[in-house]
Design brief:
9 helices; elongated; hpI Integrase, Chain A; 40% helix; mainly alpha
Length: 210
């Protein structure tokens, strides 16, 4: 299965297709890639690329402004976004997310203020932000079209964490990306289990003289 950048995704689709949920009741949004949900939301609901590619909460998607999107260290980022409990963070923005966002802002004529806005019956973007409920509603038709009806925006956020980890992302960096106060919260998102076969301390190549 193709991943967001054209590679292969190691995330299994079995959990979603069978309707299984894990012990905390978190459904994993696993149907991703070339034939799944990602191209639908990339080419259809551009708002959802921010949920999946940047791990934003739906409240953060609604609050996102053009001014938040800036270049830092030679790449595009969402800068100084205020999240849960007033915590401020900077979020790296993958190229495919920026392309999808630019397609929306260019077509809608959005040059400042809120990035994602309601559209009136004449097809004109309004000056106000979306509500969190609308962000949830916008995801539903694309999820249904991909064969995973009923998923929530937070499922995209959790899947972002899983995809980052599968791509080799460090736990602490994923924590910073998502804006978690505790690394234990990130571990719950990832469903991290101890691997005794491939133990990390086996990589410490020291010799002891005896």
């Amino acid at each position: 299965m193709a991943g967001p950048e054209g590679g292969r995704s190691s995330i299994s689709t079995d959990g979603i297709r069978s309707g299984r949920i894990n012990r905390r009741g978190y459904r994993r949004l696993a149907l991703l890639g070339g034939a799944g949900l990602l191209p639908l939301i990339t080419h259809g609901c551009r708002k959802d690329t921010s949920l999946l590619g940047c791990g934003l909460r739906r409240s953060e998607v609604a609050a996102l402004t053009v001014g938040h999107v800036q270049q830092r260290d030679g790449r595009w980022c969402i800068v100084d976004l205020v999240g849960k409990h007033g915590r401020v963070r900077t979020i790296p923005m993958p190229t495919w997310v920026k392309v999808a966002q630019d397609a929306w802002t260019s077509g809608a004529g959005v040059v400042d203020g809120y990035v994602f806005r309601p559209v009136d019956r004449a097809g004109q973007a309004q000056g106000v932000c979306l509500s969190e409920k609308v962000v949830w509603q916008l995801l539903q038709p694309y999820a249904a079209a991909a064969g995973v009806p009923g998923i929530a925006p937070h499922d995209c956020r959790r899947t972002c964490a899983k995809l980052c980890r599968a791509a080799g992302g460090e736990l602490e960096q994923i924590q910073l990306l998502l804006g978690h106060a505790s690394v234990q919260t990130t571990e719950r998102y990832l469903g991290t289990k101890q691997d005794l076969v491939h133990a990390p301390n086996d990589g410490i190549k020291l010799r002891v003289a005896v």
